[in-house]
Amino acid sequence: MSTAPRLTALDALHRSLGATMTDFAGWDMPLRYGSERDEHIAVRTKAGLFDLSHMGEITVTGPAAVELLDHALVGNISTVGVGRARYTMICQEDGGILDDLIVYRLGETEYMVVANASNAQIVLDALVARSGGFDAEVRDDRDAYALIAIQGPESPGILKSLTDADLDGLKYYAGLPGTVAGVPALIARTGYTGEDGFELFLKPEHAEGVWKALTEAGTPVGLIPCGLSCRDTLRLEAGMPLYGHELTTALTPFDAGLGRVVKFEKTTNEGRFVGREALEKAAERAETAPPRKLVGLVAEGRRVPRAGFSVVKDGVVIGEVTSGAPSPTLGKPIAIAYVDAAHAAPGTQGVGVDIRGTHEPYEVVALPFYKRQK
Fold it and tell me: What does pTM read for this prediction?
């Protein structure tokens, strides 16, 4: 039985702006408003506005909230200060990645876990299942928040005109409560574009007013609404992994080149956490004989690689593309792929992608493809 996709609080507004809508993880979301390329370039050079209300917010509170999170997640959550955030992952007992997450510490004993839309229920269920024995409550807050992101070099100036919060003092991966356009919001300096920017967690009933206020303040400096399509090319250029592509339950964080998020030296729970034993073995494997490495590929031609296409060298399959798209910033197609470690060094020659039977030439490069000038 198929259920109708869920609608965000901004659904009517997207349609009034002429957005092309798409079903994404059970939500009706804007794919683009006009040209994907124009939206992408606006974020790189000016500013873009995104509705991210499909993301899954889960609140963890109580005296043992941090012990629960240190047990359930691979990161060291006990070292996150109030008002700060951390990128981390939740893994299975076998070390496979269930999701990548951002955890915000909102107060002494209050944390917000933000999961990907497609995994929100899985993460919620896992946290509830892992909460036994901990004096902590796990609460599904997906309906309590709308999430609006403003990303790009003009975003601090635009947001400053609408808030009393100290944006200059707000570091990357930090969040503080404030007001935006007169309504309460959690203002986080986070994003998924490779640019400076902010994510605003609001009550759904306030979303439309804040979106309109940001649009009004930002239009004179080039801000435009942006859909999921350019969000994908922006994160691809920035070398950021996407769950279901670079990250899956078949891979550990070490396989994905993200072993740094796994913290074995936790002080809580005697250092024990779900998946620890499997991840210790994965860490050893990654050091001694990594099977495949995550690399960037830049096309010499014009044909675009897609997820699932084979990476080849001398007629032999040496890897697989996980994400691919034309890069508006580089002006040529790019891809992220897992390739055999022997062929993963930047500059490796003679590598191709099998695009419908033709081996198109690609150069292996280090990720990310794009890094903003600080």
Answer: 0.96
